[in-house]
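Lecture notes, continued. The same structure-token format from the folding unit now serves as the input rather than the output. Read the line below as a description of shape only.
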């Protein structure tokens, strides 16, 4: 089957694809004037062709140390918790929670973990061992 249509409407960049069970989650960066965008979004699909969303995964207005330049999220699931590493205002942060795809329903903590921007920060490691 050949599908020549874009998977998502609009201007999106730096996508990260996460498979969780039967669902696929796509976490892109929203292209905006001057990269001053303040939200991270997620789309959900069962077949990688039809996508639901965008849903707000993280709004920088909920982050005390950054207000714009949201880009390049990296998302991992460990046990029943999701971790989103992200860049904003030349800082690196992490959001952790049980849900990262349902807008206002999610509740998580957000930490500033370092200075300097990173394209695609993700956790590495398997099992119960250390992660970095």
């Amino acid at each position: 089957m050949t599908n020549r249509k874009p998977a998502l409407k609009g201007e999106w960049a730096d996508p990260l694809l996460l498979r969780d069970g039967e669902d696929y989650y796509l976490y892109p960066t929203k292209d905006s004037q001057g990269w001053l965008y303040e939200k991270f979004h997620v789309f959900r699909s069962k077949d990688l062709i039809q996508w639901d969303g965008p849903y707000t995964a993280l709004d920088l207005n909920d982050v005390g140390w950054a207000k714009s330049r949201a880009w390049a999220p990296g998302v991992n699931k460990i046990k029943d918790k999701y971790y989103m590493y992200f860049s904003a205002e030349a800082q690196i942060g992490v959001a952790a929670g049980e849900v990262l795809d349902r807008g206002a329903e999610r509740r998580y903590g957000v930490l500033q973990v370092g200075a300097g921007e990173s394209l695609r920060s993700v956790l590495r490691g398997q099992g119960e061992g250390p992660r970095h």
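Point for the exam: The first strand starts at residue 12 and ends at 20.
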